[in-house]
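Data deposition worksheet. Section B asks for the primary sequence of the deposited chain exactly as it was used as input, without tags or linkers unless they were present during the calculation. Section C holds the resulting structure in token form. Section D is free text for depositor observations; keep each observation to a single sentence. Incomplete worksheets are returned to the depositor.
Section A, Depositor: J.P.
Section B:
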Amino acid sequence: MKTLIHIENSCEPCVCSNAEEARVIRLLKDHPATSVRPAEPIKIQEKPASAVQAHSIEWILRIGLFGTFLGHGILAYQVKPAWVPYLTLLGFTKSTAAVLMKIIGVSDLVVACFALLKPIRMLLIWAVLWAFATAIIRPLSGEALLDFIERTANWCIPLALLAMHGFPGRRKSLWRIY
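Section C:
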């Protein structure tokens, strides 16, 4: 037999399946510490990004870093003619610049692969510095400041990865995979 109990300040009656359950509910209702009160509005609180979201963001940044350095590495290895003046601005001859660009291309490809497979803090620091240097060389060589501004993501992506995993505090942590 089911018992119907009306709880004070409640919109709906409570249906109990047996007499013992009804007795417990009456006792709880009458006890001051457990008296039934109208439901309070639900408060929605913003939560920080979950571990899954952080992991997804990390992989998006790693893929972005990979793509940036892969593309630039291939172009440098092919000795992109538009980039030779940047090295001649630093005092290198055109023939030396061509050889250096091949070396730069290979190093960019190495950075791309490590960024995807084993991101090391030292590598990320190098990526920030190198990408910033290659962006700032443009206005220094006479190009518009906008050429630097549009390359901000190239050095901000590795900087964001460093910020996510903490900047190295000691020399030993420079070589640690995060």
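Section D:
The two ends are 63 Å apart (CA to CA).
The chain is about 60% helix and 5% strand.
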